[in-house]
Write a structure and sequence with these properties.
Layout lengths: L3 H15 L5 H19 L9 E3 L2 E3 L1 H4 L5 H18 L1
Antiparallel strand pairs: 1-2
Helix pairs in contact: 1-2, 1-4
């Protein structure tokens, strides 16, 4: 099973390839909608991490934690892309 970091990595990579930017709030919402759509279509979660209800919307605290560096997410992008190609 993928992690929320894998999904976040995908969106960061997509934003970079298309010349867009992704701030933390936007990233949280994209990850949330990915989970929601996967649950609706497949009936199973895309990843295990749980969301919390925060004032500006659903948040996975591990993705928002100041100790998590974007470099860690960027580092995971090549592995995620390989996994997606194999499963896709």
């Amino acid at each position: 099973m993928r992690s929320c970091f894998d999904v976040a990595s995908y969106f960061i990579d997509l934003a970079n390839k298309t010349g867009n930017t992704v701030n933390n709030l936007k990233l949280q919402k994209l990850v949330y909608y990915s989970q929601a759509w996967h649950l609706a279509i497949h009936g199973t979660p895309l990843f295990e991490e749980d969301f919390q209800a925060w004032i500006h919307g659903p948040v996975i605290p591990e993705l928002k934690h100041p100790g998590i560096k974007l470099e860690e997410i960027y580092r995971r992008i090549p592995l995620l892309m390989q996994q997606l190609k194999k499963s896709g």
